[in-house]
Amino acid sequence: MPSPNPYLLLSILGFYLLWVNMYFNSTVSALGNTSAAGNFPDGRPLLNSFTGWAPLDQNIATIVAFFDEMTNGSDPGGKFLYMDVISTLHSAILWFMLEVLRGSELKLMGLLV
After folding, report:
1. What are the extents of the domains in the chain?
2. Which end of the chain is more exposed for a tag (fewer CB within 10 A), N or C?
3. For residues 84 and 103, what is the distance between their CA atoms, to the nearest angstrom?
4. Are 106 and 100 in contact (CB under 8 A)?
5. pTM for this structure?
6. Chain Cα centroid distance, residue 35
7. What is the dihedral of CA 27, 31, 33, 37, to 10 degrees?
């Protein structure tokens, strides 16, 4: 029997640690409640109309509520997180451009694994 792919095991672990933990510690419901109410628990308003299409606006408002703690300036670590995300995105974009220049046929699954 072949050994399991370590990346698959790490993906499952990462999914569990991010989404399942957020579900069980009520982060998901708190984000949904915040975006539905249109204000944060401390009373600050949350803009919840971006495109005029309610299903999309609800999802965008949830994303805005999720990133609020890092973008409102109350946590100095947020700047370091964004610096890390930007450097990771630059690496991914560079990798993508080099693969295109190399002439390889890019497939979505090839980029994800």
Report:
1. 1-72, 76-113
2. N
3. 29
4. yes
5. 0.62
6. 16
7. 150
